[in-house]
Design a protein that fits this description.
Layout: E1 3-5, E2 12-14, E3 17-19, H1 28-40, E4 45-47, H2 55-63, E5 71-76, H3 81-95, E6 102-106, H4 120-129, E7 136-139, H5 143-152, E8 157-161, H6 168-179, E9 183-187, H7 198-205, E10 211-216, H8 220-231, H9 238-251, H10 271-274, H11 277-283, H12 292-299, H13 309-313, H14 320-332
Parallel strand pairs: 3-4, 3-10, 4-5, 5-6, 6-7, 7-8, 8-9, 9-10
Antiparallel strand pairs: 1-2
């Protein structure tokens, strides 16, 4: 079983981290079963967030009796100290615990620092003094904010999208974190579902000894695939390298990471799905996306008013109105 040390936190865990966003879509009984199976088979890092509806509650229900054997990370989207305290207290209640191993500021548009007027960083340090949190991290989708957080040496971990579709700027973030002895947590290691070969995803990330992927797990068969890597971890051999290069040639460029920060759309377009429809049609069963429901959703692109609010909010700088139209044109060729 391969393990990862999260920088100066000294947290050392199974290289398979459990990303608990998808379990909010499962019934309590099913989610508890999956979480418990993960723990029983060696997974010991669980990442959730106050924003993930009942994800925290499900972890609390499934794992509170083994709290001392696992590491739990959660997040707050608070923009001031008062809201952070409210979120933290609710998170601890949901998880049935009196501390978090890692608390993270959830994709702020700036890097919270002491004296910035929000009181966020000071509140987190107070929570740390009280023993309510043990380590402080930050998550983001913006390279500039991520680099500032690393350089500040105020944070112990960074969580950022990272997969074998990453470019050199994102690889540099991982290297910077290592230089600062900062843990790096990989979100969207399957690129929002576009990567469908888990062993290749695992093998690529295992090249970075300070990087911990948190796989978004919703179904038991998905969990089983990653658990198989405990005893037989995939390696980056020549065949795997060739496959990844082929994938990169097909998928990199102006592809939508499905982060959702472009939402909501004034005319109701589901941007984070519609804007990558061409890829989804070619990498998943087409029938899933050619239903009457998805035809209706795609046709909403015709209603785009060109307000460009989505462009302003996109952390990757995509020209979303233009790429949406291209996806719609392509979609209609399948009908």
């Amino acid at each position: 079983m391969e393990r990862v040390r999260l920088g100066k936190t000294e947290i050392t865990v199974n290289r398979n981290g459990f990303g608990a966003l998808p379990i909010q879509r499962r019934k309590m009984e099913d989610a508890v079963k999956i979480l418990r199976k993960a723990y029983d088979n060696g997974i010991d890092f669980f990442d959730t967030a106050r924003a993930y509806t009942d994800s925290e509650e499900k972890i609390g229900q499934a794992l509170s009796d083994v709290r001392g054997d696992i590491f739990i990370a959660s997040k707050t989207m608070a923009t001031d100290a008062e809201k952070m305290w409210e979120d933290l207290e609710k998170t601890l209640e949901n998880l049935k615990t009196d501390y978090l191993d890692l608390y993270q500021f959830h994709n702020p548009s700036y890097c919270p620092k002491p004296g910035d007027g929000t009181g966020l960083y000071e509140a987190a340090m107070k929570a740390k003094e009280k023993g309510m949190i043990r380590h402080l991290g930050i998550t983001n989708h913006r390279l500039a904010v991520a680099k500032e957080a690393i350089g500040s040496d105020l944070y112990e971990t960074l969580q950022f999208p990272f997969s074998y579709l990453a470019d050199e700027k994102e690889v540099e973030l991982v290297k910077m974190c290592k230089e600062h002895d900062m843990g790096f947590i990989c979100m969207k290691s399957l690129a929002g579902g576009l990567i469908n070969k888990a062993n290749a995803a695992y093998a690529y990330l295992s090249q970075f000894d300070n990087a911990l992927p948190i796989w978004g797990i919703q179904h038991e068969h998905e969990l089983d695939e990653f658990l198989a890597f405990n005893d037989d971890p995939p390696k980056m051999d020549e065949e795997m390298k060739a496959f990844i290069e082929k994938e990169r040639a097909e998928l990199t460029g102006d592809f939508c990471r499905s982060c959702g920060y472009c939402m909501p759309c004034p005319v109701g377009i589901q941007i984070f799905q519609c804007n990558r429809m061409s890829l989804l049609l070619r990498r998943m069963p087409k029938d899933v996306w050619l239903t009457e429901k998805w035809q209706e959703e795609m046709n909403k692109i015709d209603d785009c008013i060109g307000c460009r609010q989505c462009v302003e909010k996109c952390p990757y700088g995509l020209d979303i109105p233009n790429t949406l139209k291209k996806n719609l044109e392509d979609y209609r060729t399948f009908l």
